[in-house]
Amino acid sequence: MTNFKQIEENLKWEAARLLEAGSVSVVLAYTKGMDEKHPQPFAAKSAADAANIVFNEYCNHNLARYIMRYTPGTKIAVAVKAADSRAVVVLIQEEKIKREDLVLLGIPAAGMKNQKTDEIIDDKTTGGLANPVICDILLGEEIHTGKKASPYDVLAQYEQMDKEARWEFWKQQFAKCIRCYACRKACPLCYCDPCFIDQTKPRWAVKSPQEHGNLMYHLTRFQHLAGRCIDCGECTRACPVDIPLYLFHKKVAKDCEEMFQQAAGMNIEDKPVMVDFKVEDSDKILE
Amino acid sequence: MLKKTTIEKINEVAAALIQKGTLIAPVKEDAGANFREIKDPREIYLDYYNTVLSPKNVFLPQMEDFIKYKLTKSPSEAQQLELNLKPAFLFGVRPCDIKSFEIMDIHFNAAGIIDPYWKARRENTTIIGYAFDLDSPPDQADFYNTLFIGAADPEGSDIFMVKRGNELLLKGITKKGETLLEQLSMMPEGDDKDEKYFADYVQRGKEKRTRFMPLDDEAVTQKYEDIFENNDYWTKVSDACLSCGICTFVCPTCYCFDICDENLFSNGTRRRIWDACMFTDFTLEASGHNPRTKVSQRLRQKVCHKYSFHVRKYNVISCVGCGRCTRSCPVNIDIYSMVEAAMKVQS
Amino acid sequence: MDFEPKILGIACNWCTYTGADLAGTTRLKYPQNLRVVRVMCSSRINPSFIFRAFQLGADGVLVGGCHPGDCHYNTGNLYARRRLAVTKKILEFSGLEPSRFRVEWISASEGNKFAQVVEEFTAHIKSLGPQTKFKIQE
Question: By the number of CB atoms within 10 A of the CB, which of A214, A228, B134, C86 ranks highest?
Answer without folding.
Answer: A228
